[in-house]
Amino acid sequence: MTRSLSILLFVCAVVIITGVTTMARKAKAQAPAANPLENTVYLDLKDSCRVVVQLQPDKAPKTVARIKELVKQGFYNGIVFHRVIDGFMAQTGDPTGTGMGGSGKRLPDEYPSGQDAYSRGTLAMANAGPGTSDSQFFIMFKDYPLPPNYTVFGKVTKGMECVDKIKKGSQSDNGKVTDPDKIVKMELATDAK
């Protein structure tokens, strides 16, 4: 009788486990897929030129979350590219246009790894040293061997020809731009109309 009871309990356990596993698989299969555009940003520049950026939350989750928050607030709309060095990068994200301003909220460093961290089309956070990233970021014009001291959070997937047209600054004045180009509008693809 004890053996029969043990076998019965074993069979019941297998049936229950199989049923739970099957239900979990069905629930997972029926779960809505993540929106493929949820980490895509549209950066509209002059002359209706659009840059498409793929954010990389797997590399910099806190930075991507903050960038998305600022984009949703319209923070970047109208902000100039205050520092643009030909053959290197275009920097923006400072509401004062001086390179000294920001949103007022510092971000933790989420430094990249890998030799191609700062390749053409990479978006990375500008900073004045460890723990000082805020809202300013730069877009790489070409591959450049920077030290891994700048959080990489995105990559241009379309529209690098627009980035290449951004007005360049003075080489003798560290890329400072007179009458600079600006971000006309920056929005999440999921919010675009």
Strand order of the largest sheet: 3-4-6-5-7-2-1-8
Number of beta-strand segments:
8
Poorly predicted runs are: none
Distance between the termini: 71 Å
Strand content: 15-25%
Estimated structural class: alpha+beta
SSE sequence, one letter per element: HEEHEEEEEHE
Q: Could you report the average pLDDT, rounded to the nearest whole number? A: 88
Q: Helical residue percent?
A: 10-25%
Detailed description of the structure:
The protein contains three helices and eight strands; from the N terminus they run H-E-E-H-E-E-E-E-E-H-E. By secondary structure, it is of the alpha+beta class. It has an eight-stranded antiparallel β-sheet with strand order 3-4-6-5-7-2-1-8. The protein is globular, with a radius of gyration of 24 Å.
Topology:
Elements: H1 2-30, E1 40-45, E2 49-55, H2 61-72, E3 83-85, E4 89-92, E5 122-125, E6 137-140, E7 152-158, H3 160-164, E8 185-188
Antiparallel strand pairs: 1-2, 1-8, 2-7, 3-4, 4-6, 5-6, 5-7
